[in-house]
Amino acid sequence: MSHANALCQVVDLDDIKDEIVGIRRHLHQHPELSFQEADTAALVAARLEEWGYAVTRHIGGNGLVGTLRAGSGARTIGLRADMDALPIHEETGLSYASCKHGTMHACGHDGHTAMLLGAAKHLARTRNFDGTLNLIFQPAEEAGFDSGAQKMLEDGLFERFPCDAIFGIHNHPGVATGTFMFRNGPFMAACDTVKIKLTGRGSHAARPHLSVDPVVAASSLVMALQTVVSRNVDPMETAVITVGSLHAGHAANVIPEYATMELSVRSFKQEVRELLEQRIRALVETHAASYGARAEIEYLRGYPVLVNSDAETEFARGVAQELVGEDKVIPSFGPIAGSEDFAYYLQQRPGCFLRVGNGQGKPMLHNAGYDFNDENIPVGAAYWTRLVERWMPVKPG
After folding, report:
1. Each residue's pLDDT tens digit, 163-181
2. Where are the beta strands (DSSP E) in 108-177?
3. What distance in Å separates the CA atoms of residue 123 and residue 391, rounded to the nearest whole number?
4. Which residues does 243 contact at the CB level (< 8 Å), separation at least 6?
5. Whole-number Å distance between alpha carbons of 383 and 69
6. Torsion sign, CA atoms 151, 268, 87, 355
7. Dihedral in degrees, nearest 10, Cα atoms 161, 348, 391, 397
8. E strand or H helix at 37, and its extent?
């Protein structure tokens, strides 16, 4: 255990590593989908209360906050971990693999929760800070819409638990374990979903002249959509349009009545986001009309661009450099085309969302073979601890 007023080192977590790894593997074995994280939240709350935190449950559903005060300082900080799993059937073969068919922690939220719990235990026993610590355990990050962050904010998160700044971590496969990655400004993409229905006129396959073929219209539209980024977005900007779903018909000898498509649309600037919607809507409607079909468009705004504030990112980067050394810190990483509802917190408070390497040659996120790397647990817990100690330092003397 570290001495009083000494800043946390990774080795200070060695004595609790096995305990926290055990919690992580229990969570991995018992995953819960978005808005269903009741058992996970109950486990987290029980541990926090055992360690001396004041716990407030049922914030935005299964969300909870553990609060710990030390000294008389006025500074506050929020640290967030997500808790939900994904509807993926696990294929890792691990001894602690998911016991729930079709559900697994394929994004490492079990590890994010464990890292924050490790810091929670260490901070409770050292209390080497002067102020108020709010540990935010969030449900439903994977929801895509009306997510856990939105629900917790709607429930008055920052009004009830003031935070001068908020910080979060996500693991990152493909980068060496324990390597920290940062980026000032726009870091992760806005993600929107577009649902399209093209209605034509069905007919016998032998009489196409009597039809308005939605399959042909949809196929042509897929190709036309590829021009939006290449010919409408400034080539110095980043944007993605992916047609991830296309369905039409059930039989080879029937021209169907309609075809449906779903798009994933990603961007890093609000003006690019607006341009993409404008061009997609116009292209879908006019393209359908050119084939004699009718288009229905449902444009669903997902998570906004995640924008890290400069001062807090510099602070968080400095803490990592102190803890693990500059050779294990990538100071300017990304941007990343994935999206994250931590963006909603950063719209209301300054802060930083960062990444930590999950190991090279490891399965990617949202993959049936993925597993969180437990070597990150003491590193992540020590990082959170040191961040708090630096943010709310104990006054000398």
Report:
1. 999 999 999 999 999 999 9
2. 131-138, 166-172
3. 13
4. 222, 225, 261, 262, 263
5. 19
6. negative
7. -60
8. none
What is the identity of the amino acid at 106?
Answer: A
Nearest to 249 by CA among 223, 291, 207, 218: 218
Q: Is 298 exposed, middle or buried (0-12, 13-18, 19+ CB in 10 A)?
A: exposed
Angle between helices 109-126 and 376-391 (to 10 degrees): 50
Distance CA 167, CA 182 (A): 12
pTM above 0.90, yes or no: yes
How far is Cα 374 from Cα 108, in angstroms, rounded to an integer? Answer: 10
Give residue 46's identity as a one-letter amino acid code: A
Q: Give the pair of three-digit tokens for residue 25.
A: 């593997």
Q: What pLDDT, in 10s, does the model give residues 42-78?
A: 999 999 999 999 999 999 999 999 999 999 999 999 9
For 220, counting Cβ atoms within 10 Å of its Cβ (0-12 exposed, 13-18 middle, 19+ buried), the class is: middle
Contact between 226 and 274 (Cβ < 8 Å): no
